[in-house]
């Protein structure tokens, strides 16, 4: 029997809203032919930024947006992206298909985007091919309120006041596309760059060191040993990929493909656990945040699209990956202070896909919307006994669960059933609450690969869910096969 016990009056840690962050890189159609459509009349926009995308992301209460990369960040020179657009340099985007980057979307446009979204900017600076001075000058340009040459240049370019800026990345994947450095070397490089990374208006900059990928624990060990006192956060990247050399289709998969991707997603728990254990040795107070600033599914690009553009469809399987991973972040939220799913629009595990004037919401978008009540809520202690979902000689838990209580006292319980074949009865005992009202929504579909398309944009979306009964402090829930369920208890 599956049992969930929730201690509704328990006082756990806060689930930092920044765990629900996003990542948008100058890659494929994320910006150009995505977020940025220019100021023409073809697609409704505000100062060149597409209105329907902003409206959709605002509904998620998006807390922060990481930009401009990714690998692109260590080949990006901020001066290329300021001043009148007509005069901006065209540069080859060496990482993503050698297309010419017009730099029409630069610092001012990004800050405008964050303003329209109501989110905080998280900018990743260039260590791999940039200089300490270039990074330091960008910070002065953006954050200084006084009468300096750089602050006045910002004013000439149309922005009088400094922008609010807290989150700052010091390079990206510096063991790879960000300079192919060894951990020992990058630790010293990091210390040097971080010395000059400051908020020029007296604010506090949250400096995030370029971190490890997956199970590269040596990187975390060295960075924490040599540089922890110069950082506020340390990054970590982990994607759910079947195999780098054979990732598989985003839409055309069997049960083995379903199972393997979910199992890979669940590895996030071990990966975070191991990196956290290393960090605990150097930082038992957990001052330094583990910032999982790239995560999500990575499938083969859609047939007929440029493989360098990483455009992939998004099915119910991706929704399950999102829900399982967010639960893992909740469970580690004492150390995981921020996370950023890759990437917001038209790239990898996107929230929305666009085609000309059309925009569709992905199943992953719906999970972020269903889970948004967890942002800044108190994580509640739970105990879960679940059956396994077994394929061949491998197994993963059939049910995943997380519960939180917000400032108004409302509880949000989110649940996943990973089995594509079996519904699951879940007996949920509630202690420390006299909640009487339960409102439910479920995301599920007829088949594992159900997705929204431009022809059928609402094939999968959350529906009201009523397969539960409440009595004697106990909730009995019938979880549909392959589903994500959100219950609000008041
Ligand atoms: O998200 C795509 C790429 O994956 C990023 O540019 C890089 O940081 C990572 O390897």
- CATH class (first level) name of the largest domain: Alpha Beta
| Order of neighbouring strands in the sheet with most strands | 2-5-8-9-10-11-12-13
Largest sheet: 8 strands, parallel, barrel
Number of helices: 9
Contiguous uncertain segments of 5+ residues: none
Radius of gyration: 22 Å
Beta content: 25-35%
Which structural class is indicated by helix and strand composition?
alpha/beta
CATH topology of the largest domain: TIM Barrel
Number of separate domains: 2
| CATH architecture descriptor name of the largest domain | Alpha-Beta Barrel
Shape: globular
Q: Which compounds are bound in this model?
A: alpha-L-arabinofuranose
CATH superfamily label of the largest domain: Glycosidases
Level of helix content? Answer: 10-25%
In whole angstroms, the N-to-C terminal distance is 26 Å
Strand tally: 27
Mean pLDDT: 97
Walkthrough of the structure:
- With 490 residues, the chain is an alpha/beta fold.
- It contains nine helices and 27 strands.
- Helix 3 crosses helix 4, helix 6 (217-227) packs parallel to helix 7 and helix 8 (316-331) runs parallel beside helix 9 (363-371).
- The model has no long low-confidence stretch (mean pLDDT 97).
- Bound molecules: alpha-L-arabinofuranose (AHR).
- The site of alpha-L-arabinofuranose (AHR) has 10 residues, from loops.
Gist?
The protein has 490 residues and is an alpha/beta fold. It folds into 2 domains: 17-375, TIM Barrel (Alpha-Beta Barrel); 380-489, Golgi alpha-mannosidase II (Immunoglobulin-like, Sandwich).
């Amino acid at each position: 029997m599956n049992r969930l016990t929730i201690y509704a009056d328990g006082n756990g840690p806060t689930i930092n809203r920044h765990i629900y962050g996003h990542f948008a890189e100058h890659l494929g159609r994320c910006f150009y032919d995505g977020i940025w459509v220019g100021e023409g009349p073809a697609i409704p926009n505000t100062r060149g930024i597409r209105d329907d995308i902003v409206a959709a992301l605002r509904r998620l209460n998006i807390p922060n947006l990481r930009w401009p990369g990714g690998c692109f960040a260590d080949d990006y020179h901020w001066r290329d992206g300021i001043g009148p657009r007509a005069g901006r340099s065209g540069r080859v985007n060496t990482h993503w298909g050698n297309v010419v980057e017009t730099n029409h979307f630069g610092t001012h446009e990004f800050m405008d985007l964050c303003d329209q979204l109501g989110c905080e900017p998280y900018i990743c600076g260039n260590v791999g091919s940039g200089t300490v001075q270039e990074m330091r000058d960008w910070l002065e340009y953006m954050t200084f309120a006084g009468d300096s040459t750089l602050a006045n240049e910002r004013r000439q370019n149309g922005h009088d006041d400094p922008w609010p800026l807290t989150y700052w990345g010091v390079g990206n994947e510096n063991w790879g596309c960000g300079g192919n450095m060894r951990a020992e070397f990058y630790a010293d490089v990091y210390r040097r760059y971080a010395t000059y990374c400051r908020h020029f208006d007296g604010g506090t900059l949250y400096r995030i060191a370029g971190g490890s990928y997956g199970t590269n624990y040596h990187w975390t060990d060295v960075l924490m040993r040599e540089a922890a006192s110069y950082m506020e956060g340390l990054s970590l990247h982990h994607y759910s990929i079947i195999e780098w050399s054979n990732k598989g289709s985003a839409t055309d998969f069997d049960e083995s493909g379903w199972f393997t991707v979910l199992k890979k997603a669940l590895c996030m728990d071990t990966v975070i656990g191991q990196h956290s254990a290393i960090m605990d040795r150097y930082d038992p107070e957990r001052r330094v945040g583990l910032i999982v600033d790239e995560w999500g599914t990575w499938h083969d690009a859609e047939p007929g699209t440029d493989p360098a553009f990483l455009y992939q469809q998004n099915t119910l399987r991706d929704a399950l990956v999102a829900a399982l991973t967010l639960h893992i972040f909740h469970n580690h939220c004492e150390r995981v202070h921020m996370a950023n799913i890759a990437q917001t629009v038209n790239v990898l595990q996107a929230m929305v896909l666009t085609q000309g004037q059309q925009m569709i919401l992905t199943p992953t978008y719906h999970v972020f919307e269903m889970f948004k009540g967890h942002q800044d809520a108190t994580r509640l202690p739970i105990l879960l006994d679940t059956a396994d979902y077994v394929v061949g000689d491998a197994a993963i838990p059939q049910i995943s669960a997380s519960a939180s209580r917000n400032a108004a006292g409302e509880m949000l319980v989110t649940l996943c059933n990973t089995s594509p074949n079996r519904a699951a009865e879940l007996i949920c005992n509630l202690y420390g609450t006299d909640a009487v009202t339960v409102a439910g929504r479920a995301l599920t579909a007829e088949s594992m690969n159900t997705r929204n398309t431009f022809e059928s944009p609402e094939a999968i979306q959350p529906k009201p869910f009523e397969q539960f009964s409440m009595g004697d402090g106990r909730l009995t829930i019938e979880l549909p096969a392959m589903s994500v369920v959100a219950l609000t208890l008041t």
